[in-house]
Amino acid sequence: MTVDDRFTQGLFRDPDENEPVGVRSEIVTGPVSDWATDFSHLEPEWAADPYPIIDDLRGRCPVAHTDRFGGGWLPTRYEDVAAVAYDTEQFSSRSIIMSNFRPPRELAPMGGSPPISSDPPFHHHARKLLLPAFTKTAVAKREEATRAYCHALIDALEGRAEVDVARDYAQHIPARVISDMLGFPPEDGPRFREFIETVLEGVNLPPEERVAGMDELFDYLLAQIRDHLDNPRDDLTTYLIDAEIFGQKLESAHVAGTMALLLIAGIDTTWSAIGASLWHLAKTPADRERLVSEPELLPTAMEEFLRAYAPVTMARLVKQDMHWNGVDMKADDWVLLSFPAANRDPAQFDRADEVVIDREVNRHVAFGLGIHRCVGSHLARMELRVALEVWLERVPRFSLVDPAAVTWATGQVRGPRSVPVRIDG
Asked: Is the pTM of this model over 0.70?
């Protein structure tokens, strides 16, 4: 098989098939009757503020259940989230987005978006491929361009008394960094947002709409791959096209799935972290003023923002029927790994519900636990630090226009989508 042969057809589905093989469950929407027995991370009250819900569940029902999405579980204690994250024998990562579609078990061990969707032992090899691009040394080489881009974004806001720090600033930074890494046209940023909304927020769309949206994403990736085949360059896309596992070139689905992971997760998680941090500073003048006067505190404060506003929740699928920590799980039940819940567990963190920007001991799990801990954590930290440094340097005084106008994403990556702020002075 040559490189070109892998990408002559569609990436996943046989042209004669109407939809991928797997199991679809009934779409259930509407108000939650009881969060302990009917939870849904796609409801507006969860998006607006999930922490009171999580605190309540942790106290009375530490492992919540739902019949939505075909059945799933939500551990809310740190120790339970960690137990699932480290247990690859009983829980599979072949699909990490809790939805109304379960891909076939045969998709393991690679999964749809390796390495985050991969089970051992394949996971080790898929993850190892990506490590060189995300070392501290590799990431450091991107800092200068990232900083210059942050300044350019603020330059474009000159003269405006009110701006939206999520839409006008936060979302653009990771989109530019990831498009540069993958060798995608930087002007395609608005399309990336559409792809993110399809994958992460469109879980309850009708099947035909969700399939069409996913097709659009992978058609885009295939076009980028073919362009790189014609015009190889020094970027991650060409690297993945040429990479090998076990002496063989990667399957087309592996190449495209990893590209999708980097595009979707690499943008939305960091966009959410930057936006949440700026939202906090806009509504908390004491913390904002302290960071402006003590910029050396920013790395510590940044870790606290990651703990308190951790954006990412991952999903697992139960491998077989079992009794686990007091509940009876069925094969192919979902389990939501809420790292935000783990980070707010008072059994693990002192003053867990407070944002303490000079917190000295902060072993948060915003980047996950176990073998699937975020491979891009160095990159995300660099982007977050630079974005906050530049903003506080250029815009030291800002405040929320209207707290009620702030909106948050639904789904498994939670971050502010709109944060209108007033530039003071």
From this structure: yes
